[in-house]
Amino acid sequence: MITNTLMTTLNAVMVPAINATPTQPPGMENVTMILGWILWAAGLVLFVYFIFGLVTAGRNRRRGDEVEAPVWPLVAAALLGAAGAIWNMITGG
After folding, report:
1. What are phi and psi of 17, to 5 degrees?
2. CA distance 93 to 91
3. Rounded Cα gap, residues 43 and 52, in angstroms
């Protein structure tokens, strides 16, 4: 009963939507630039690690050894991409 009344009251009151567009504080441009460099360097390291994993898997396959696919660099690259997207959403970039 109380929840019904509360919901009816909340539905009757027209609350305007909040504009949640993020803006950077002054002086944050350098931090954003440095974090962009870090994300770029991490992506490069993951790419090199993935290529190294492919070469290692090919070499092991040729020798007849056990072959492991380089999955961890791909998982880390997906997390890195998500981190970049989340950072852009937070900073409005």
Report:
1. -70, 145
2. 5
3. 14
Count the Cβ atoms, other than its own, within 10 Å of residue 57. 16
* Among the listed residues 47, 54, 51, the one whose alpha carbon sits nearest the alpha carbon of residue 68: 54
From residue 35, how far is each of 16, 23, 32, 70, 91 by CA, in Å? 35, 17, 5, 26, 12
d(CA 27, CA 74): 34
What is the model's pTM?
0.57
Per-residue pLDDT of the chain (93 residues; tens, 9 = 90+): 666 676 666 666 665 656 666 677 787 778 878 888 888 888 888 888 888 888 888 888 888 888 777 788 888 888 888 887 787 777 666
